[in-house]
Amino acid sequence: MVATVDHLIEHVRPYLDRDHEARIAYIRAPRWIGHHVAQDSHRRLAELLDRPPSLRTQGLMLVGPYANGKTMIAERFAVEHLRTSPKQRVWIAQTREGAGLGHFYASILQALRAPGGDMWNLGRKAEQLDHLLFSLKPRVLIFDEFHNALRGRARDVEAVFAFLRRIGRQYDISPVLIGEVSVCDFINSTSEMASRFDLVAVPRWQYDENYLMLLDSLEAALPLAKVSDLSNEPLARQIFSLSEGLIGEIVTIVTKAAVAAIMSTSERITKAGIDELHHVPVSQRRSRAFRESLL
């Protein structure tokens, strides 16, 4: 393939010489986007790892809407930590849906790869968890989709909060809570909990220079032979409107459009090509009109 490659990052350019299947597989592969919020989040997480021992550890909240990259930020940080540290000190627990300490303990036990994570005896779960935390000595424990733990009765939520306070005092662990805005509301409902957690907001993107730079970086990472000019109007506006400012949706739209550009041999993303995706914004997927269109 003969193509101009100046619009592509250097390590992406050789992919233009590969077949369609290889290029599409590369485009669809998960990719890290080091935007300013992600970089700030990693800095704040690194500070939790490097802090001195404390009996009252400080935690962190990563809060924002669904499909906006919060989980990827945490997973990327955990992976980078594993690559550079001789001992794992960062663990990620997928918080289960369900009220009470039983479900919450089971989430952590599963993350620590412990057998018996589904046992019903709460006392045995607590004993097993204490043993693992003492043995593994994690420094940062990340709870993804923490809002799942906040859907029970007030006493259940307070029991979870008491656990978060205890692991700081007893095991020198900094908890990191990832979730929707409700996480921030619950933590800030009492001064005691609010004083223990700093906030890193992961909001929707605005139509500004940072967003346009994001589009430029995405285009440079996709092995298409022709320039798409994603950051120019009206293409940038079209992507922003369909994505509603959610980075997960932005990446999905651009990825699908890039794959379609290869399949059609047009080798560039166009407004017409994005129209042909028939992408439905997140806010419209529960609307009556959308539902009726499926019948």
Automatic annotation (TrEMBL):
Report the Pfam families cross-referenced here. TniB
Which superkingdom is the protein from? Bacteria
Q: What is this protein called?
A: NTP-binding protein
Give the organism the record lists: Ciceribacter naphthalenivorans
